[in-house]
Design goal:
45% helix, globular, 3-stranded antiparallel β-sheet, two-stranded antiparallel sheet, 5 strands, single chain, alpha+beta
């Protein structure tokens, strides 16, 4: 999937560490622990995270819970990223947009329903 069509701004993992004011290895651990998802991009194949995953110096509220529900529904990281950024006119907007707008309950309800 070409995420550049869906995602405007990316942060390299060192930038995530700076944004969250944590050591780089702790930022890497956020990816390993599935608190956030990252994709490999560029010539150096480095990990990048969508900038919209962060708000006010923290991970967007309900993002980690939504990612857990998507994993429980059988989604891999690429599929979860696609689901988060694909517009849904019944929401309205994309699930990540709804999370940023603090409409996490509805997003998590929909993510949970994917498992059934």
């Amino acid at each position: 999937m070409d995420f550049d069509v869906l995602i405007d701004e990316w942060l390299a993992l060192p930038d995530v560490a700076t944004l969250l004011d944590i050591p780089f290895m702790q930022a890497r651990q956020l990816v390993n622990d599935h608190k956030i998802i990252a994709v490999r991009r560029g010539d150096n194949n480095a990990l990048y995270v969508p900038a919209v995953f962060f708000q006010d110096g923290a991970i967007v509220k309900h993002l980690t819970g939504t990612l857990n529900l998507l994993r429980d529904a059988g989604y891999n990281d690429d599929e979860a990223m696609g689901w988060l950024f694909t517009a849904d006119e019944t929401l309205p907007g994309s699930p990540i947009q709804a999370l940023v707008e603090n409409r996490g309950t509805e997003v998590k309800r929909r993510a949970q329903a994917l498992g059934f």
